[in-house]
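Bug report

Summary: structure tokens for Folate family ECF transporter S component differ between web form and batch submission.
Environment: batch mode, default settings.
Steps: 1) Submit the sequence below via batch. 2) Compare with the web form result.

Sequence submitted:
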Amino acid sequence: MYSLKESAKELRKVHNLAITAMLAALNTVIGFFTITIGEFIKIGFSFLTIGIAGMLYGPVIAGILGGTCDVLNYLIKPTGPFFPGFTLSSILSGFIYGLYLYKKPISIRRVFFAKLTVVIFVDLILTTTWLSILYGKAFIILLPMRLLKAIIMLPIDTGILYIVLKRITAYASPGEIHQKR
């Protein structure tokens, strides 16, 4: 297993920072196409850029990217009050993707478990807690509709992320991706 120290070393390379900045810009653009269903449910695909960063550069850069994108997206297009808990959730999502995908072969199983971990711990537990705190609604009231969304979107998001990551690994030169295929 690759260490956090090795992932942190990715920050030293200007090339990696430039690609991470492009992923942040892409994250913001993709964020404009988020579908809002009611007050507490959003369907979006910004997780793709965080997953890509996790695969390419590991948990450190992916976590930093997640937090940065959360704040940046709030500044560009606020959809409610700023709440630091959501930033923490974004950091943890990037960190989790990095733990599962950095320097490891991309398989549907690995992508599924990365996404499942994010869904359970970040989307269902943390984000539902933040929404409960922010809007004064009971956790148990918010959970069923968020759980339904998670059950529907998990296979869709897994498939899309898997296809994107496989395409990136297919077209990148071996020096660009630090994984052995």
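Above is the batch result. After comparison, the two runs are identical; trailing whitespace caused the diff. Strands lie at 35-37, 41-43. The first helix runs from residue 4 to 9.
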